[in-house]
Design a protein that fits this description.
single chain, 7-stranded mixed sheet, 13% strand, disordered N terminus, 9 strands, two-stranded parallel ribbon, 11 helices, globular, alpha/beta
Length: 323
């Protein structure tokens, strides 16, 4: 056991990082629910900072506002088919020139879930990535865990959830927050681990040696990249969303590798099970039962590791600096 691993649990700062992935967030929520139920604990009691992008941002918001993971699972099962309705015939062609889904069912679901609660009502520190399309710049929503963070806490929680999950081509951008053109944070931080590590280090002053990360992905498809990509153009890279898939996968792997390099291999646990190419998709609500089954299998194996590495630490109460 090295010096970092031997750090007393009271000196730790533990981070829960949740990837984007649309309806595949059902996997992440179900993993957390299973861990809670197996160990008879509350997940949020053991983390000092929650980070989530897109569907992971919705989960992080729910946890911060006091929802149990099992409630979030039920939210996905109930609202998923409304948010991602089936597309047939000519609608598939429409997606080439227009967003795939209306934002209204997503807005309705988020408003029903979060009601009139504000982002600043969170009982946990949160960092939720989005992207400012108008200014071409990153946009992080952060709870008031530092004196200079004086604006985001006033924003209704459902608007933050919408901003982080307005995935390009699937939903239109949202202008609900200060009329800024915001889109899904997954365009730059689908795996928000490094966003959280930087927030803990720079904003909160937590040394890298004290940070421990539990990162949950939404499945890692085993893909064989077609030879056409070797010298392909727009059509070759556009087919099957190959360009988007490579960019998002590369970003996610890079974030995990960087965090592991900075914090040490013992300090980063990543759950992101390998699955067959095409098994799950961002809007594949028909695979809900399979996602829950995958979560049941993965959590059964991982829960003893969670108990050993994360359950011993109790996060201190979060007192927001602005209300």
């Amino acid at each position: 056991m090295n010096a970092q691993t031997a750090l007393p649990v009271d000196s730790r700062f533990q981070i829960l990082s949740l990837d984007g992935g649309g309806i595949k967030g059902l996997f992440s929520a179900a993993v957390l629910a299973a861990i809670e139920e197996d160990l008879k604990l509350s997940i949020t009691d053991h983390f000092d900072l929650l980070a989530g992008t897109s569907t992971g941002g919705i989960i992080a918001l729910g946890l911060g506002l006091g929802m149990k993971p099992r409630e979030i699972v039920e939210f996905y099962l109930r609202e998923g088919p409304k948010i991602f309705p089936s597309w047939w015939g000519m609608k598939g062609l429409q997606h080439w020139v227009y967003r795939k889904f209306s934002e209204k069912p997503l807005v309705d679901a988020l408003q029903s879930c979060f009601k009139d609660r504000r982002f600043g009502d969170s009982q946990k520190r949160l960092v939720i990535p989005s992207y400012n399309l108008g200014e071409d710049d990153v946009y992080n929503f952060r709870t008031p865990h530092h004196a200079r963070l004086t604006r985001d806490y006033k924003v209704p929680a459902w608007k933050v959830a919408l901003a982080t999950s307005s995935a390009p081509t699937f939903f239109p951008c949202t202008r609900e927050v200060g009329n800024v053109r915001l889109i899904d944070g997954g365009v730059w931080a689908n795996n928000p681990t490094m966003v959280a590590v930087a927030e803990a280090y720079e904003t909160l002053g937590v040394p890298l040696a004290n940070q421990w990360v539990f990162s949950i992905g939404t499945s890692d498809a085993v893909v064989k990249r077609a030879p056409r990509l070797n010298s392909g153009g727009i059509i070759a890279w556009g087919l099957g969303n190959a360009a988007v898939d490579v960019i998002m996968r590369g970003q996610s792997i890079g974030a995990n590798n960087q965090a592991t390099l900075l914090l040490g291999r013992d300090h980063v646990e990543r759950l992101n099970p390998k699955v067959a190419d095409g098994e799950f998709s961002l809007d594949g609500v028909s695979k809900a039962d399979d996602l829950i089954g995958k979560a049941s299998h993965v959590s059964r194996i991982f829960t003893p590791t969670f108990q050993l590495k994360f359950a011993g630490h109790r996060a201190k109460s979060f007192e927001p600096l602005h209300k």
